[in-house]
Hints:
single chain; about 80 residues; mainly alpha; 3 helices; about 75% helix
Amino acid sequence: xxxxxxxxxxxxxxxxxxxxxxxxxxxxxxxxxxxxxxxxxxxxxxxxxxxxxxxxxxxxxxxxxxxxxxxxxxxxxxx
Length: 79
């Protein structure tokens, strides 16, 4: 009859992609805030924007995947 489809990998992939997007956006906002400060720090002025964005994307990837795994880990089985 009907096969049961496990959507766990799809949830993990979608949350990971959302995490990448949110991480990139958050790191970009942090860089803009840092540069628009009245007295920007030397760390702010010397950081590579591309590396900072990639760092944010990586953290978002792990946060999104971790949240998805945590959300689907102990879900009750469907009858």
